[in-house]
Amino acid sequence: MDVVGYVTPILDLILALNNRIGVIESNSQQFSRISARLGKLEKLVESIQGMGQIKNSADVSKALNNLQQALTEAKNKIEKYQNLKPLLKILRSSHYETKFKDVNERLSDANEELSGSLHVRQNNIQEKLKEEQDRKLEYLEEELDRKLEGKKCIIL
Predict the structure, then answer these.
(1) Where are the chain's structural domains?
(2) Rounded-to-integer distance, Cα 14 and Cα 23, Å
(3) How remote is the C-alpha of 129 from its chain's centroid?
C-alpha cells in the first residue's frame, strides 16, 4: 500500500481512540498520556498528507503500517477496558495500567519510527536537490568559462 493509503485509516483510528479516551475516567493518567501521544501522531500523519514526494517511500509505508497496527491494538485494548463492568475495572486496574503503559510505549515507538523515516526521507530529498544544484552550478561555471575564453581570443 502506498503512503497515501495509510493516512485516512490512521486518522480515523486516532479520532476513534480520542473519542473513547474522552469517555473513560479511571486510569486517567495513562489515558491522558495516550491522548497526548495521539495528538502528536495525528499532527505527524496529517503533515504526510501535504508531502507529495513520499508516496512511494518503502520506509515511510512500513512505519505507517506499524503505526496502524499499534493504533488498532490500542483501540481494541481500550474498547475491552471500556466494556468492563465498574467493579472489574477496579479489581483489574493495575493489570490495565500495565497494558496501557504498553500501549503508550508502542505508540511512542511507532512515532519515533515514523519520525525517523520521514527525517531520513527528507535528508535524501535535500541531498538530491543539493547534488542537482551543484551540477547546474558546475554547468553554468563551465559555460561562463567557455564564453570568457571566446572573448579572450577576440581581445588578443
Answers:
(1) 3-131
(2) 15
(3) 23
Q: Which helix (H) or strand (E) holds 68?
A: helix 58-82
97-120 pLDDT, tens per residue? Answer: 788 888 889 999 999 998 888 888
Averaged pLDDT, 80-104: 80
Q: pTM score, two decimals?
A: 0.68
Average pLDDT over residues 13-40: 75
Rg (CA), the chain: 25
List, for residues 50-74, the tens digit of each pLDDT value: 776 666 678 888 888 999 999 999 8
CA atoms within 13 A on the CB side of 145: 6
For residues 128 and 121, what is the distance between their CA atoms, to the nearest angstrom? Answer: 11
Q: Which CATH superfamily is domain 3-131 in?
A: Adaptor protein Cbl, N-terminal domain (1.20.930.20)
The DSSP symbol for 51 reads -
For 6, how many CA atoms within 13 A lie in the half-sphere containing its CB? 28
Cell of 18: 480520542
